[in-house]
Design a protein that fits this description.
- Two copies of one chain form a homodimer.
- Chain A has three domains: about 45 residues, Orthogonal Bundle (434 Repressor (Amino-terminal Domain)); about 140 residues, Response regulator (Rossmann fold, 3-Layer(aba) Sandwich); about 140 residues, Rossmann fold (3-Layer(aba) Sandwich), CATH 3.40.50.
- Chain A is an alpha/beta fold.
- In chain A, strand 3, helix 7 and strand 4 form a beta-alpha-beta unit.
- The structure holds a DNA duplex (16 and 16 nucleotides).
DNA sequence: GTGAAAGCGCTAACAG
DNA sequence: CTGTTAGCGCTTTCAC
């Protein structure tokens, strides 16, 4: 412990703290003051070109990088954004949904682009304030929450106390928080209309309409049917959850009702795929007997058998919108909700 | 700006900096010193019970939480671990592989358990030092890297300069960094042996043996064949990449060779699934004509048609091992590589 | 029990 | 162009 004597606290220097390099060390080795090192490493134009490169090289050769924590404290800045993924014990959507990973990836890319770090946190759905805490403790300047689920009220409260938070999900009346989401009504409409145009009339709907996004997709479903003067038949609606078992259970439930159907609109590709597998096991032929449309357009969809017709959500745009919104919010700008357009991708499952 | 006059720097107070609460504010409102607030909020036994609860309540009612950045600086501590996911532009494995998300989830859980934050970063495979930077800048006390790929040398260099890093992958001779991984040799052996016991003799192998993990699985494949006195037939080996197109391409390649085969061992479930779909399109029947075994046991595997026989990697154990290893390394302990056991899960794709 | 004061690693006036 | 110095928000010895 060959450090200059400290008059103040002496934190227990763990064995690991083996002489962690800091700016003063570089300064001493370069024979300049820390100010000069600081300026050099921050590319200040004040510093002599030659001095700067010398310091830069010294730093690089010693693998020294400015301590971000101290820098942030001094600058009163912070370049970290939290991404919170609530995991619902009731497990309405399993985290392993590939769509989640994709959107995570697009957020990560957008953040990296703008020079921000991403703090990833899973919080239990019933202690969602943990998300606010991340902001309160200054660990992140804002929060992106993936999975609106049923947390509407809690989210409103967080927004009310001015936590910069952006939620991936649907717009809901009286919502105080900012959402970014795809146009689920349009998505539901596109899917249903496509099936109707294929001549299908008895279209089953798989999805839990208690979830805002699914509710919107259902609204689109209703609109399309209405346009074709077809009444919604309650017996075709199955409140399937998003887990992988969901499709199987939903098919079982639908078949148990013994109602006729010639098409299926599932609110996620995973749901659609497991449903198709279940149907196949019961000797139904897709798409001949049942045309199927999924939602999300995950990568596997095009390699599935049969390739899945689905609604594509614009992933890259989603990540960017989420990130720019949360950054704007963090700067106390007023931010409007974002509605991204969806797109029908026709493949063989609905041929 | 009703702050006490500052003689030093005055950082541009953005509109957002609207009076961000700090300890001094709580102290003033409580009529005590910041020391007292600090001690109270840290549950120091030195503080009078009554004083403490009063301060705690005040803080809670104002949504004040101790600033972690400042706390860390003062304490010389840090409770953040970085998880780095290199994305290879050559795209050997697509990030959307569900197995990735699962392992991310298990790491997140393990970290949360131990009270650590998780910094998630994607770095380009060719600038892997960015991972070291995260440590050098003090943003994280250690790094978990998912995806060993071909980065062996770079990883060794990082380990040599004592960056606490743990890699999910295979053990390689002369490796200086710590790995946590499942026993890929055993996995490959289990899969192949299973197929052999089912009477299959011409087992195709899908996987790029340039990747260490795949190389180990191939070693297991060889061992099993050797035990049954079957020679490895090069024409049955296809260096399939892990992307979703991989299975399709590999099948095409295999069929083009016009060699007989009655089984397939694919080095990921995704590969297996897309391969099965491809085979089916060419009118091959699984498992009757081709028995298939995958790898990973992703959730979709059991809901696939036919349900996929596969090798399960112990996810939860993986997350915990990665986390405890990196934490141990961060404390400068010596850490041995971890080899987790794998398990054969028999389903219908190999019936 | 509580307060005063110093300093974690860094930046930015201010003065040379 | 470079050094001196004060302080970001917090914790902790040391004194009372």
């Amino acid at each position: 412990m060959n450090k200059k004597s400290v008059t103040s606290a002496t934190p227990p220097i763990s064995v690991s703290e083996q002489k962690r390099l800091q700016m003063a060390d570089i300064a001493r080795l370069a024979g300049v003051s820390t100010s000069t090192v600081s300026r050099a490493l921050n590319k200040s134009p004040l510093i002599n070109e030659e001095t700067r490169t010398r310091i830069e090289q010294l730093a690089k050769s010693l693998n020294y990088s400015i301590n971000v924590g101290a820098q942030n404290l001094r600058l009163g800045q912070n370049r970290t954004v939290a991404v919170v993924v609530p995991f619902d014990s009731a497990s309405r959507q399993h985290l392993s949904d590939p769509f989640f990973l994709s959107i995570l990836g697009s957020i990560a890319d957008a953040l990296t682009d703008k020079g921000y770090d991403m703090l990833l946190t899973r919080v239990s759905a019933d202690e969602l304030d943990a998300a606010a805490q991340i902001f309160d403790t200054g660990r992140a300047i804002g929060v992106i929450l993936i999975g609106q689920w049923r947390h509407h009220d809690q989210l409103n409260q967080m927004a009310a106390r001015r936590v910069p938070i952006v939620v991936w999900g649907a717009q809901i009346p009286q919502q105080m928080y900012v959402t970014v989401g795809s146009d689920n009504v349009a998505g539901g409409f596109l899917a249903t209309e496509h099936l109707l145009k294929k001549g299908r009339q008895r279209i089953a709907f798989f999805g839990d309409t208690q979830l805002p996004e699914v509710a919107d997709r259902f609204r689109g479903y209703q609109q399309a049917l209405a346009q074709h003067h077809i009444a919604v038949d309650e017996s075709l609606l199955v409140p399937a959850v998003f887990t992988e078992q969901g499709g199987r259970a939903a098919v079982a439930q639908l078949l148990a009702r013994d109602v006729a159907f010639d098409a299926l609109f599932a609110c996620s590709d995973l749901l659609a795929m497991t449903a198709i597998n279940s149907l196949r096991q019961q000797s139904w032929v897709v798409p001949d007997q049942v045309a199927v449309v999924g939602y999300d357009d995950i990568e596997l969809a095009r390699y599935f058998h049969p390739p899945l017709t689905t609604i594509r959500q614009p992933l890259m745009a989603a990540g960017e919108a989420l990130v720019s919104s949360v950054l704007a919010l963090a700067e106390a700008h007023t931010v409007a909700p974002v509605l991204l357009s969806t797109e029908l991708v026709v493949r063989q499952s609905s041929a």
